[in-house]
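name: query_chain
kind: protein
chains: 1
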Amino acid sequence: MVYWNNQDVIGALIGGALIAISSTLNLLMFGRITGLSGAFNSIVRYDKEGGFDWKMCFMTGLITVPAALNQVFGNVIQSGSFKFILFDDNEPIN
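structure:
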């Protein structure tokens, strides 16, 4: 069973909206379709004409930003009554 809470739903809506906006802007401004498989393919082939530099930066950010946030904040960002869970704590649920 899935237990929904407001924080998860709001976080998913905000994240989805940001992905949609950035993908749309990438298409409108640069004429490129945003996709991880295409970016990864360009990185593996070292395709300089296909935008290797920005794709490498994008992939590096996908890996390093969550790891850096986990190191700085741990699993939770908390300020007063506001609490945002970044990562699961991997504790077994009883």
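note: Residues 35-87 form one domain.
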